[in-house]
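Appendix B.2, paired examples.
Example (i):
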Amino acid sequence: MTAERSLIVAAKEFSDLFTSRRFLLIFALYLIIAIIGMAQGIERYDDALASYNKAMQAADEYRDLQELGAWWLEMPGKPTILYVFSSMTGTTMTLGALLAIAAGFDLVTREKETRSLKTLLAHPVYRDEVIVGKALGGAAALGVVVGLALALITAVLLVLSIVPTAGEVVAIGVIGFASLLYLLAFFALALALSVVTKESGHAVIYGLALFFAIAFLLPTFGTVLGDAVAGDPPQRPEMPVTVDGRPVDEAVWMAYEEECRQHTREMEEYRGRRQVVTDTVNLFSPITSYYAVVWPVADPSGMPPEDAAGQIWRGVAALVVFSSVFFAVAYGKFMRMDIR
């Protein structure tokens, strides 16, 4: 395999996607809804900023009390412009996934249906160069989609004199990177279906069915399976008889308190077993992994930094593994495909 021939195939696929009415239509809808979400996010940011300014003015009036240690007069946190970009994530989860499926479901089936795949392989190009080139072309197109969406939102913010801080720029970059990984996950799924199925219609139907199954059925299945594996939750011990709020027997009450502590430990173990099963099932859901990456970045106050970093890395790893598995399926099947 040579990189030059793979890049030639990638350039062709990239050009075909951006001249496809289907792809451009979904892309336009994606941008329109992203802009609507951006407007709502800017409104939320303005409201939060107005509340912050009022709180700061009130804090200035009572600064003397703050210096004396008045805990109820803590300084409020400044709102972040990530409110604006968090709205983009919802659009990416739905229309972004559909756009990725639209980019990949007929990359191979189209060639089989028009019988151009045999002609393509008659040229001095190897099979691995074809499938890698198609994957690179689709990935580049989705990268342009994410880049344009982020650039458009950032440009509007700068026009409105809303300038992100250095930390917010890094967070925006992480959101963009996670969004691209998320789109690549469903693109790899669609590419694998395009290789496995014989017709484009079947590939798109299977792709949409799997998307809705991953989006709606898989989380429910994870919860049900977690409950089944963890078993029945431990029962809380029965409170002993009291008179006027006081225990009748002190020894019985002490035993009850020990049972309560034991029940708390058992509940923690029960929740842990249940969570392990649920998290394992959710590893097969790019939606859950994408949310696990984006949520700590868009709302950094939601969890401690060390927990957020661990969750982000796990989400990124899950997205990479999901894409790699389905690309490997597409690659292996294409290399052994009987082309007549």
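Example (ii):
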Amino acid sequence: MPIEPMEQPKGRKRLTLAAVVGTVTAGLLLTNIPKDESGRTVKVSIAENGEATVRHISGKQYLKAYLDIVGVATACDGLTSYKGRKITIRDQFSEEQCAVMLEDELVAHASDVMGCTPGLALTIPRRDNVRFAAVSLAYNIGTRSYCTSTGRRLVNEGKIGPACDAFTRFNRAGGRVVDGLVKRRARERAVCIKDAV
């Protein structure tokens, strides 16, 4: 059964990423996740109502599923599942489907991250960059791993610099350190640490 982005029930507004993490963090996530997951460049605009438009500029789009570094079927911008259904190697999507699926999965991950990290609340000033790093990390490693991490605990304690450093420990895949993950964690840390000063 093919995966289709779900229609929103009539009369209900779709939850936007901006509503969950704020406009600045949503823009960072929607710009950087495609870069980190697929190496592609996108242009993101977020309307006043929080709806995001992501336009492909350059780089490969993975509209057909492929096997990642540890053999997991992956599509679009790092999606290994969508709304609980695993991606299969036979899956294929349109650019529009990938954009909707990316935001839906980021909303799900961000909601979990915000739920287990009260230290990232939208009411706390200077947390946009930490929110970006936390959600980006959770999107890559899973929310269960993020929500039990030392980095999350340190954010909740207000120890932002040490939290940013702790996020960099997630640099392994298949039991070995992976250069791409080391570089990704360094990029996330570089953004995260801006909130530590």
